[in-house]
Amino acid sequence: MFYKTAAIISLLTVIYAPTFISLGRKYLAADSYYSHGFLVPLVSAYLIWTKRKRIKALLPAAQPSKFGLILLASGLFLHIISAALRLNFGSYFSLPLVLAGLGLYLCGKAVFPLLFFPLAFLIFMIPLPNVIIIAISFKMKMLAAQMASGIVSLAGIPITRDGSTIYLPAGSLVVGDPCSGLKSLISLLALGVVFTQFTNASRLKKRILCLSAIPIAMISNVLRIIMLILVAYIYGEKAALGFFHDFTGMLVFVFAFIGLVGAARLLKCQIIKPD
Predict the structure, then answer these.
(1) Whole-angstrom Cα distance, residue 24 to residue 46?
(2) Which of 221, 202, 185, 218 is nearest to 270 (CA)?
(3) What does the alpha-carbon distance between residue 23 and residue 74 come to, in Å, rounded to a whole number?
(4) What is the pLDDT of residues 121-169, one digit of tens each?
(5) Any residues with CB less than 8 A from the CB of 196 and at least 6 apart, and which?
(6) What H or E segment, with its residue span, contains residue 171?
């Protein structure tokens, strides 16, 4: 089986080489919303590795599933059509389908449930179409600017807002698409989903924990904008848009992670060690 698996994986690597290159460019692009994409396959592989003992125990009796071939063929067909029509999203989406079909065919129905989540997690490495990114980020930046300016106004600081532009007595701040919070939301959703795999809790609590990533990411981003407004008000616009701007971008993820851990404790989700 080893040589058979190696041959199939090598063939798929050649077939998907243009897709991998396209994904790499997406991840490395300036202000990319998917810079975490390189980590997703590594996390997926680690999740499979944590289940290695159970997989090894079930493999000797595993029977290949013909449905896996159907899923594999469907994924390859989607990839070929998407490549011909230059629809990158279709090619991206076909990759988890192909890997799921391959896993189901080689390992059978007894082992596949252990592989399902790690393979499904690969969805987080798939960049959304630009039209969806633009639509979501626009709404998020407008909401973040409205919430941040409203909170700062309550502190008595004289500011006004026009759309996503916040006007201060000595300058202005523009909440652009990169500051919408969408990047942190996507990353935190992925982190929240993985986090549930290492918690001992009911399915309902795990779902709530995953969904809590949405308000946590938004609140963290609003806190960032508030800090930028305060720095711009006290020290000037240049101070807010320099090093501090980039620093708070990293700080968002710290706030978000703390919030996620806090949500897990509030839900009384017990952390468990991998097998």
Answers:
(1) 21
(2) 202
(3) 21
(4) 999 999 988 889 888 988 999 999 999 999 999 988 888 999 889 998 8
(5) 206, 209, 210, 269
(6) strand 171-174
Confidence at 28, pLDDT banded by 50, 70, 90:
very high
Residue 10: Cβ within 10 Å count: 10
> Which residue reads 């799921």 in tokens?
100
pLDDT in tens, 235-261: 888 888 878 888 888 888 888 888 888
**Helix or strand (DSSP H, E) at 162:** strand 160-162
Instruction: Determine contact, residues 185/214, Cβ cutoff 8 Å.
Output: yes
Exposure of 3 by Cβ count < 10 A (0-12 exposed, 13-18 middle, 19+ buried)?
Answer: exposed
Q: DSSP for 31-74, please give it.
A: T-TTGGGGHHHHHHHHHHHHTHHHHHHHGGG----HHHHHHHHH
User: Of 55, 109, 128, nearest to 101 (Cα)?
Assistant: 109
CA distance to 12, 80, 87, 129, per residue, from 84 (Å): 17, 6, 8, 17
Query: What single-letter amino acid sits at 202?
Result: S
* Rounded alpha-carbon distances, angstroms, from residue 243 to 56, 99, 119, 231, 239: 50, 42, 38, 12, 7
